[in-house]
Amino acid sequence: MSTVDQSAPLLDIRNLYVQLPRGAERTHAVEDVSYTLNNNEILCVVGESGSGKSITARAIMGLLPAPHVVVDKGSIDFNGESLTTVKEARMREIRGGEISMIFQEPMTALNPVMTIGKQIDEVIRFHTKTRKKHRRQRAIDLINSVHLPDPEHIIKAYPHELSGGQRQRAMIAMALAMEPKILIADEPTTALDVTTQAQILRLIKELQQSHDTGVLFITHDFGVVADIADRVAVMQHGKIVEIGTTDQVLNHPQHPYTQALMRAVPSLTPPAVRQISTDTELSVNALTKTYKSGGGWFGLGAKERIVHAADDVSITLHKGETLGIVGESGSGKSTLARCIVRLVNADKGEILYQGVDLRPLNRKEMRPYRSKIQMVFQDPFASLNPRSKVGRIIADGPRVLGVESTEADKRAREMLELVGLDARAFDRFPHEFSGGQRQRIGIARALALEPEILVADEPVSALDVSIQAQILELLADIRERLQLSMVFITHDLRVAAQVCDRIAVMRLGKVVEAGPTSTLFSNAEHPYTQELLDAVPGRDWHPE
Predict the structure, then answer these.
(1) CATH topology of domain 277-372+500-537
(2) Half-sphere exposure of 416 (CA within 13 A, CB side)
(3) What is the pLDDT along the chain (544 residues), one digit of tens a residue?
(4) DSSP state at residue 274
(5) What does the DSSP assignment read for 485-520?
């Protein structure tokens, strides 16, 4: 058996083309892509949705949805072995054994009916002949290595019993089970809070260094790139448009597309303070919302669990102001938003709008106020009815409130124009639009009711950096034109810095600190706020 040349790249991709099915927007998902990955190196591949980042990763893993999507031309060599011509039996040995992948969404990638321990055991059992007792100990050791608490409990737990960060750690443990030479991480921190994200990034870097692993890290977050990358490859429309060291690409970008992406990254430095009215638009006082679970029938069974999602929360929103609500998952941000718009009924407290307490109002009494406070949801895929045309989605709200159909349709067309969409969008279905366009439709639907307050719940968290910049610009423009007041919920502190006049920081259902954005970013007082700011990826990198 020939020895592997240690000076050669661990992974060598040359002139790769991945063909798309007939009728697709372009003929190739990946076109003439070439790059290498070395031992103990982290190569970040960046670009927007549809740029070909994940398709390239799946081609490496032999996970393309053949026969519809296939490698057309080019080569993928791993330690001198061609992955494009290798037999499927050998590919199964490589996959998980020598090259592992961490997927973007652990809840869909993990088997919901198998415990974490069994899923790790399955990987070890497939690739080795280790005895059950040793496999169990290996699973516990792996769970320990990714810093999960109480390994004995974790191996018996199902995915739904873990938090998002814990699920991602469990998936990393599974990916590292066979100590692979290459680890492919496909957007592994996109859906995570800033502190959990920082922990996962530190973990990946630590494991990469201790195992001498080559890491191919796919992301659209340039803060993440600044923190962990050795080299960066930028992809657009299936092609590599720029590749180089982290310093070269982030601080001295050459290609216009890379330069445009850099300009779209929100700065951590808040802009100049705006003059805001002192008139109060909305006042939330001592709001409390508690959820209970467990207990079983008649109080029998599991011990009852009480969660204080909103615990004595008080905030004030001034006319024309954007108030940011920041914090990690489970801090109570979205519960507070849903209580404000009365999608959830709070247990006690006040929601004062123009002197009227909305909290105790019944459905009929609340109806006149529904149009005044509208919500833009996080997921533009789930929040739009896939069976209704866009025009109807937007016009339905005004119709319900008594506006005649002709006038409601006219208003829907005006709202589409306001959010920068073509008039033809009126007669199309949601699935015909990109994620950014769908979010614009969601904003148009909220504005059609002529609200005075817009509650935006993570409206840009699922979007690419350039689309995110467009939506934030759109919201700022609409706020100025319509004199809207906004409650803006986010876990992205870069976004909060740019769009919020004041910020309230939530932790475990409580507001722990609140104040003007510039003050909070320059002189945070609460340890939790300081922790959030310290965890922002690429904190010390400032795009020019």
Answers:
(1) Rossmann fold (3.40.50)
(2) 22
(3) 334 455 688 999 999 999 988 877 789 999 999 999 999 999 999 988 888 898 999 999 999 988 889 999 999 999 989 999 999 999 999 998 899 998 877 777 889 999 999 999 999 998 888 899 999 999 999 898 888 888 898 999 998 888 777 888 888 888 888 889 999 998 887 767 788 788 888 888 887 888 888 999 998 888 899 999 999 999 999 999 999 999 999 999 999 999 999 998 888 889 988 888 889 999 999 999 998 765 555 555 556 667 788 999 999 999 999 999 998 877 889 899 999 999 999 999 999 998 899 999 998 899 889 899 999 887 777 788 889 999 999 999 999 888 899 999 999 999 998 888 888 889 999 888 877 788 889 899 998 998 999 999 888 876 788 888 888 888 888 888 888 999 999 888 999 999 999 999 999 899 999 999 999 999 999 999 999 999 888 888 877 6
(4) P
(5) EEEEEES-HHHHHHH-SEEEEEETTEEEEEEEHHHH
Which CATH number is 1-93+209-265 given?
A: 3.40.50.300
Question: Which one, of 45, 48, 42, lies nearest residue 58 by Cα?
Answer: 45
Give domain limits for the chain.
1-93+209-265, 277-372+500-537
**What b-and-e string marks burial along 378-403, b requiring 16 or more CB atoms within 10 Å of the CB?**
bbbeebbeeeebbbbbbbbbbbeeeb
Matching CATH topology for 1-93+209-265 and 277-372+500-537? yes
CA angle at 1 for the pair 134 and 36, rounded to the nearest 5°: 85
Q: Could you tell me if 493 and 534 are in contact, meaning their C-beta atoms sit under 8 angstroms apart?
A: no
